[in-house]
Amino acid sequence: MPRIPDIVVGRLPLYLRALNRMQAQGVDITSSHELGQQLGISSAQIRKDLSHFGEFGKQGTGYNVVSLIGALQHILHADRTWDVALVGVGDLGRALAHYGGFGPRGFHISHLFDADPAKIGKKIDGLTIQPASEIEQTVKSANLKVAMIATPANTAQAVADTLVQAGIRSILNYAPISLTVPEGVRVQHIDPIIHLQRMIYYLD
Amino acid sequence: MPRIPDIVVGRLPLYLRALNRMQAQGVDITSSHELGQQLGISSAQIRKDLSHFGEFGKQGTGYNVVSLIGALQHILHADRTWDVALVGVGDLGRALAHYGGFGPRGFHISHLFDADPAKIGKKIDGLTIQPASEIEQTVKSANLKVAMIATPANTAQAVADTLVQAGIRSILNYAPISLTVPEGVRVQHIDPIIHLQRMIYYLD
DNA sequence: TAGATTGTTAATCGATTAACAATC
DNA sequence: TAGATTGTTAATCGATTAACAATC
After folding, report:
1. Which positions of chain C lie under 7 Å from any protein Cβ?
2. Measured CA to C1', what is the nucleotide nearest A50?
3. What percent of chain B has pLDDT over 90?
């Protein structure tokens, strides 16, 4: 497989989400044009992106929704279930633990951690909250590769360091801070303030 | 002001967040190099981005943290408080309503809406949940421009249409669906699945 | 077949980076 | 002054788009 630009990989999940929606609505076949309209992306870009990975369509017809979903899931490694550690069980962490959208898309929150002694041992949806001190050993023995951080900003970097130390390679960070991680570890940041500020620039 | 590329505007909030952190740590002066290291961005890019808006540094010295914060807040329109409507008060909506990070950054959740009759009239942090049927009138009379959607996917587009109809121009969407909005309305999507899938591609 | 859409190439467009004169 | 860092220009790099032959 040739080197794929990050920006191309980043769009594949958007295609997959739109295709899943089409499938749920009973659509069998789609085209790069239709997909592009739904996503606000040009049809040429969609065809170009897909062409990095193979040929998935049929001239004159378009793409079979189900088989393109399968192909994209395979490319993204979303054709299996990934266990995920969640560190920080405050309001946001609890909302994430309850969120029903992970399971159907192949992610399973398998472990919860928190630093607050009052929370240790409590259960959320049948999952027991473990002390933060157990992160390293637990993540290692469960061989987890994916984690979410939902702690306050001031502890997020230390948590990330511990997670990486334990073998985590993908971190979804909800703490409002830029995390520094070694080469080979991926971080994605979710900070609503950043998104809001990107938009209010355009307001008067 | 010349036309600024979206991608440049999109980085300003990241600069602002890093600078706020520096200020909290008592740092008075920084440089494009230091800022870039913290964010994983080249120093040249930071200087180029800022140069779209004016001259904020001093040769040989760098940037005064406090005054660059002020300049960026002004550019982004983050030097005032924006009232925000929140539609959908499930687990996630409640977590957002409780989140303490909005106020200090100039956002104030001023109205809550939900479609569930059982929730109407209940209070969260002193704010009464209003019925979704009141969105249009309330948003208009409060002259709100910013909203967050935290409803299920199947109602998000209808909610967005109503919000836009009522004058909302910036939507932060937590529902896992691509929203379609008219020209002149900005949408930012927050969907953890998308971010997770972007990362697992790189795992084996 | 006629119509439609893919996959791909080449051209265009835009963003990033390197380098340096200006200057604090 | 000597050292450092800005703001900016020009060069490089990469991404997007337009266009079309291939073909279902």
Report:
1. 2-9, 14-19, 22-24
2. C7
3. 98
